[in-house]
TrEMBL record:
UniProt keyword Phosphoprotein, yes or no: yes
Residues annotated with 4-aspartylphosphate modification: D75
Occurrences of domain Response regulatory (ranges): 26-142
GO biological process entries: phosphorelay signal transduction system
Keywords annotated in UniProt: Phosphoprotein
InterPro entries in the cross-refs: Bact_response_regulator, CheY-like_superfamily, Sig_transdc_resp-reg_receiver
Protein name: Response regulator receiver protein
The organism of origin for this protein: Caballeronia arvi
């Protein structure tokens, strides 16, 4: 597999998809960098998505108590519960078992793919991509 080191990369890892039935995409962004999470949320909101932000894996689990996302965009390197641990918990909870989970991280795909697939991630998008690349990946997973 060749990796282009000059431009960030997005990839689909599974054939999971979620059926949204013409609703707004509900997207939970989980990232301990508040500025990054809020910027991504604003970009996705301007695209017509219904987004929420959680600044940790624990916050993400509280968020789904009252609001169930179609898609979870999940950073990997976070304190306490990293993205892998958070994804594994989301896969065990009935409300989010079938949600699409995308790794959104500065780490290279070769670093996160094996544990990411084992933890339940459906795709990967490296930070640094324009929001349109992430929206394109989401669009391949949401029908």
């Amino acid at each position: 597999m060749s990796v282009n080191l000059h431009s960030p990369h997005c990839a689909l890892w599974t054939n999971r998809s979620v059926d949204v039935d013409h609703e707004q995409w509900r997207i939970l962004i989980v990232d301990d960098n508040a500025d990054s999470a809020e910027a991504l949320s604003a970009a996705l909101d301007s695209d017509g998505c219904d987004t929420r932000v959680a600044l940790s894996g624990v916050d993400a689990l509280h968020a789904i108590d009252v609001w169930v996302p179609h898609v979870v965009i999940l950073d990997i390197t976070m304190p306490e519960h990293d993205g892998y641990a958070t994804a594994r918990v989301l896969r065990r909870i009935g409300r989010t078992r079938d949600a699409v989970i995308i790794a959104f991280t500065a780490l290279g795909e070769d670093i996160v793919r094996k544990e990411g697939l084992h933890s339940g991630f459906d795709g990967y998008c490296q930070k640094g991509n324009p929001p349109t690349a992430l929206v394109g990946l989401i669009g391949r997973l949401v029908h």
